[in-house]
Amino acid sequence: MEHSMAASEEAMQSLAQWIDWLPNHHDATLNSRPDVMVLAARYGDGHLRAAKAIGLALLLHNPAIKLGILDYYKFVNPRLDNMIRWVYLTSVRFAPDLWRWFYTATQRIDPESGTQKFLNSIGLEQFYRAISPKPPKVIISTYPTAAGVVSTLKKQGRLDVANYVVMTDYSIHSQWIHPAVDKYFVGGQDMLEALAARGISREKVVVSGIPVDSRFREPVDAVRVRQQLGIGEEPVILFMGGSYMPLPEFSHVLSQIDRVTAPHVTVVVAGREENRKKLALQYQRDSKHPMVVLGYVNNVHELMGISSLLISKAGGLTTTEALCRGVPMLIYRPIPGQEDANAGYLVKHGAGILAKDQDDVSQMVEHLLTHPDDLRKMADRARELGHPDAADIVAEHTYQALLGREAHGRS
């Protein structure tokens, strides 16, 4: 039994490495002519993380599937890609009201408008030329631009493919909704109702949850993880500031957490930015409470598994990971637009609270740590909202579509 379990873990690691390899080798992945193509984008890492979760679930279902995972913006002119990326990152970090205006202005845009047609044409011809020699049978988009392009090609009669869209936030936006989509996979019942209100057939919508890494449903050895971090039995506050949070605000949240008088340990995930980690280490030296400072980590599933509360912005994947782990969230500085909606979803359903400003953080944490019943209720609500099997659900629908198309091709 131990040998077979070890072999299974080894096979899982091998598949995960292969999944990681695919989007980093664009041309080789394209040249393999995959039957199932998952299109993501590196605007934040949530879209790609969802794509990888789906890919791994597919290969665990059937390792023989010819799979491709691609960054859609590799098909876009590099100058245009760089400009779009710069505008997005700059606006969400330094001009959030501008991004909120754009998000709101396009939330119900007419699909036949010039703006929508332009968005649905970004990279279209390059993408079509690349896949036309042997098109995939199923395309899954975890990024809205890709979904619009595939829909346009289907509508033009240039592409015959099962077109699946996996929404990676808890809000409905016109950029995700297109006429030639065969199936939408959404995070919750609220989204199904919102799509139906926009005229989308309920038969096209699957309440799957947002796909996350399969490790978020595995049990965590809390004693081992705490020992590795060098912490005791105190409640753990996990702070994931994210690269979009300006350093002054990151610093202020750290000081707010340390003002909390109730016993706790703070685990800070600073990510890849060295200046963010250095700042956290400065706070660690003078902190009144134990503090662990980490850089980039690949065991968020374990850190969430020992945490009583997560302080973070409301990215779709981070939010979903917390729900799957049953970790309540204190949401701070969500990106305007989609993350505002994610925060609203958690608050509405009792799985999160939203800090209105920096000074709310310490009061909210103090209240939750000194009222454990409130914290427990939030954790219960989070578990009820989580869909840890979301990737499996998307994979099963994909596999059935693939079998159907192969059978049709043989008839």
From TrEMBL:
One of its GO terms (molecular function) is hexosyltransferase activity. GO terms for biological process: glycolipid biosynthetic process. Residues 47-212 form the Diacylglycerol glucosyltransferase N-terminal domain. It is found in: Membrane. One of its GO terms (cellular component) is membrane. Residues 236-392 form the Glycosyl transferase family 28 C-terminal domain. Keywords: Glycosyltransferase, Transferase. Pfam families: Glyco_tran_28_C, MGDG_synth. Belongs to the glycosyltransferase 28 family. This is Monogalactosyldiacylglycerol synthase. It comes from Sulfobacillus acidophilus (strain ATCC 700253 / DSM 10332 / NAL).
